[in-house]
Amino acid sequence: MKNIVVFDEVKEVDLKPSGLLRKYVELTKEDLKKFFLKEKKLEECLCPACHSNRQAKAFARFGLEYQECLSCHSLFISPRPDDAALNEFYVKAPSRIFWREELSRVTKQKRDEKIIKPRFQWILESAQEYFPGAQDFADVNTNQLGIIEEIAGAENFRRRTLINPFLKKEELNSIAIEVLEGPWWETPLKNEVDVMSLFEMIDRVAHPDGLLRKVGQILRPGGLVFMTAITASGFDVQVLWERAENLYPPDRLNIFTVEGLRTLFERHGFECLELSTPGVLDVDIVAKAFKDDPQIPLPRFVRYLLSQKDPQIKKAFQEFLQANRMSSYARILLRKK
Ligand SMILES: [Zn+2]
Fold first, then answer.
1. Does 5 reside within a domain?
2. Which of 227, 159, 165, 163 is nearest to 193 (CA)?
3. What's 80's DSSP letter?
4. Of 138, 145, 172, 293, which has the fewest beta carbons less than 10 angstroms from its beta carbon?
5. Containing structural domain, residue 290
6. CA dihedral (129, 133, 139, 145) positive or negative
7. What's the CATH code of the domain at 19?
8. Domain count, the chain
């Protein structure tokens, strides 16, 4: 199984401008009350990665609770809304509309350059390596225009499809691309796709098992799945835990560990061709949290690391995290057997 180490200069503030992000978080809190907390249609669940029933409360976030699996140590919200309720949230919630129409636009240029272009380079090169001649591409629930533009431009795929109930046709402007507007579990595609992309999708579905089962039905044998996810085994999440600002529902309903992800993929019979954690922000995120609040309890070693003046040390530490799959941003390549 491959583990790729990359290094790129990227700053969290370019991707997440703090003023707009604060507004997005405030809107999300309000939306969670409206959409999920009032009617209390929430269901308890087992660990969605390894199905263990041994769990302990980790911390609460915006009225919902993260549990820690005591077997694979993934974090997951339980009780949780179902996928139909989540779908409605992603279509209608004002926080999501704000994200699509404002936040994602302000950061589009940096995201396109620093994240999306390298991501598509990875997809195109890996597809060439593992499935030469792949012709049919489908993406599930992408919400960034930059990704849609890349998919539309990937002309080596004969057919490019977006499975996506959130997009407004008029927002696609002149991008000629097939859109299946229903939710992913209703898509009629069967045994007819060579390559799929699921960007941070596994983080935000109520039933990852249902999603992977569906993906297995959509793909042809030998078909590839490209995924990205935030991991609970990553450095900044492990260090900050309940103080990690980027962990909140429903975007991060599941925060799997690397071990949890492996168990999940094995259960669904996928071959894992690559599992890398090419994140570049872990140390920066912890440094920022410490700068914002010097009182937060950090391990002595982490304080010492952050106090180092030579930027090369932090960079080398981040490279160590990547080399050992200990960054909190993961990219995964699976193959249907
Ligand atoms: Zn587990």
1. no
2. 159
3. B
4. 293
5. 12-336
6. positive
7. 3.40.50.150
8. 1
Q: How far is CA 259 from CA 175, 222, 282, 283, in A?
A: 39, 24, 19, 22
Residue 171 CA to ligand 1 center (angstroms) comes to 39
Question: How many whole angstroms from 100 Cα to the centroid of ligand 1?
Answer: 32
- pLDDT tens digits along 187-228: 999 999 999 999 999 999 999 999 999 999 999 999 999 999
First to last CA, the chain: 15
Q: Which of 10-24, 101-115, 127-141, 203-217 has the lowest mean pLDDT?
A: 10-24
Report how far ligand 1's centroid is from the alpha carbon of 206 (Å): 15
Dist. CA 292 → ligand 1 center (Å)? 32
How many CA atoms, within 13 angstroms, populate the side-chain half-sphere of residue 268? 26
81 occurs within a structural domain: yes
Helix (H, G, I), strand (E, B) or coil at 159: strand
- Buried-state track 69-101, b at ≥16 Cβ within 10 A, e below 16: bebbbbbbbbebbebebbbebbeebebbebbbe
